[in-house]
Amino acid sequence: MPLSDHEQRMLDQIESALYAEDPKFASSVRGGTLRAPSTRRRIQGAALFVIGLALLVSGVAFPATQISGFPVLSVIGFIVMFGGVVFAITGPRVAGGRDRSPVEPGAPRPKRAKGGTGSFTSRMEDRFRRRFDE
């Protein structure tokens, strides 16, 4: 369900206030977004899965690959299979995130002209009190 205009504005205000108060924390939390995997990436992931499956089966089928009865090659095959699936379904990260502003990621965000003095938390507390005083 998409956010209403009011909710989107509130979310943008909270995000900009977070950047204003602690830009280092905000940029570390923001991270990047994941893109959809490309066809090439899916094919590579499927190939890894098949290689892992072959390792898993050969580890069980050939007793020479077992160490003290433990199928080491099968475990490695399972890990390769799992990695292939993860590689196939995830896309590469995009560094920009969902930022809609033309400001560069390292530059500080501009301050808003409206609004009073004080920190973000004090403004939110004031809003909360005003709602329940009415």
TrEMBL record:
Reply yes or no: does the keyword Membrane apply: yes
Q: Which UniProt keywords apply?
A: Membrane, Transmembrane, Transmembrane helix
Segments of this protein annotated with the region Disordered: 93-134
Query: Where in the sequence does UniProt note compositional bias of the Basic and acidic residues kind?
Result: 123-134
Protein origin, superkingdom: Bacteria
Transmembrane spans: 45-64, 70-90
The yes or no answer to whether the keyword Kinase is present is no
| InterPro entries xrefs | DUF3040
Please give the Pfam families that the UniProt record associates with this protein.
DUF3040
Q: Kindly provide the name given to this protein in its UniProt entry.
A: Transmembrane protein
Species whose genome carries this gene: Mycolicibacterium flavescens
Species lineage, top-down?
A: Bacteria, Bacillati, Actinomycetota, Actinomycetes, Mycobacteriales
